[in-house]
TrEMBL record, chain A:
Species in which this protein is naturally found: Paenibacillus cellulosilyticus
Name under which the protein is recorded: Acyl carrier protein
Domain Carrier: 1-77
Record-linked SUPFAM superfamilies: ACP-like
TrEMBL record, chain B:
Gene3D superfamilies: 3.30.300.30, N-terminal domain of ligase-like
Cited InterPro entries: AMP-bd_C, AMP-bd_C_sf, AMP-binding_CS, AMP-dep_synth/lig_dom, ANL_N_sf
One GO MF term attached to the UniProt entry: medium-chain fatty acid-CoA ligase activity
Protein name (database record): Long-chain acyl-CoA synthetase
One of the GO BP terms on file: fatty acid metabolic process
Residue ranges occupied by any AMP-dependent synthetase/ligase domain in the UniProt entry: 7-355
Family assignment from sequence similarity: Belongs to the ATP-dependent AMP-binding enzyme family.
Keyword field: Ligase
Species assigned in the record: Paenibacillus cellulosilyticus
Amino acid sequence: MERIDQGVRDILLKITGVNPVESHSLLKDDLGIDSFQFVQLVVELENTFKIRIDDAHLNMNRYTDVASLSAYLSEIAKNAEGIA
Amino acid sequence: MDTFDLTCMKEPEAVFLIEAYTDRAVTYGDLRLMVNGLANRLHEQGIRNGDRVVLMFDNQLEFIISHFALLRLGAIAVPMAPDVSEEMFQHVLQQGEPRCLLGKDGLKLPGAIITDAIVDADSQFITLTITELQLREEMTEETMFEPASLDSEDPIAILYTSGTTGRSKGVIMKYGAVRADFEDFGQDLGFDRSTRIIQVMPVHHADGWCYSFLLPFRFGSSVLLTPTFQASVAASFDRLVGEYGGNVLIAVPSMLKSLLAFKPRYLGPVEGKLRYVLCGSAKLHLDLVESFETQFDTRILDNYGSTEALLIAYYTPEMPYRKGSVGMKAPRCEIRITEEGEIAVRSPYLFGGYYKLPEVTAEVLKDGWYYTGDEGFLDEDGFLHLAGRRTQDVINKAGKKISANAIDEVLLACPGVADAATLGLSDAIYGEEIYSFVAASEIGKLDEAELMEYARKSLPREQWPKQIIIVDSIPRTAIGKVIRSALMDDLKQPTGGV
């Protein structure tokens, strides 16, 4: 979970240029993520963590802050490991 | 029966509108019955020719039906985003003096409606929620009143701009201008009954407004309406062209970039499904064009226009691409380049002025010519080339017009800032990105990270600079104009926090 949270923050820093990115940073209000940056974020996350975010979870409004996004990604990663 | 009824009755079983993902759909026959039913209800409520009516909907069928109903009444639509800021909402209410507001189910108004300020004592401001259930229950063949017979000069909508300079302005869309533009453009583009437009732009924005409503209706085409472009739409694009049969996409360049990024996710084929992509509003980079055209096996047709002038230049499918050009001058457009290099346009498509702002209108509309604020030239074959903007104030980020001066004003209010200059610089994703240069009043007192934090707290999200660069001084000409090239050198070699 911590590894994923750090990875998410690194990617967000790269995309938004906002420093620092904290776990409690709000995606829209603190980091200013827009719909195009969110697409970029999804692609980077999927490539970095070798996961796939399903279409139903591609709504930016589902994630208020960095922690909620990291929590969801950790869940996918855990399930993927379980299957493997 | 009038033109509206007759157009709908030509092929009543044909689909006019599909909402992707919800699968709600309206045929031309249903469109007629729903529109007439709602028009009757609004007529009963006292809405008449010339009344302004605010429409607050997302991209949804209720918006389309409501707008057509207003046309039947001769009333003027004032589309607004449901999540509009309270300041903008109050501005439109006070300036537009609407009689009525039609909104989506569950709409939460961004501020109070102060009716006394809006309507006279005899009439009452009405707010109505429009739902599909009601529309279907009220479906009827006949209107209970004589539908409005619109003249060319009659306004059918007031589209409020994002307000790059000062308060937002309401652009008056005249029936004749809109009809003439759609007629010419649709014919040149070969619109017909088989055309299905994938409409991902917000319906309250000029692009979304044009392509969801009268343009497809005129040609018996259909509209595939999606929520405003976002990751979930980009991720399911294969469904839009496969399952839903969309074959013409309306987009801005940053959307194409997103679709390319998500292409590996698609399960269904997307190659060759789009007849073409109509792309405008922001600078289109050649590498993006080539990449998208190759990977989607389609053609991108660039265009240039504005809410005030509608389409000024565009490509058609038959027209070969000309390097650096936004397309050929529209057939009925006259283009004149002023001595200062500004593009001025005269055409049947021009707007009817800014609502209640005659002085502001007079600054850009002179003797029938609209002065675009853009610089460019026409080549010998009638292709238009853009060279930049006459004013450096406007930054075009993904089609959104942002005032550089407004950002500078905020930065100048920050303690320790002596001078500021904000520029829009070329960007592969957004067309242009925001860069702010700041000079300190006392050496050693400014920090880029702190300035950025200040900017983020003080500016709306879309106005946040991508980068704030601290410089020793802002290079200016003798008359105070910022020397862009000198600042660009600073961007290449930023000095960092001093």
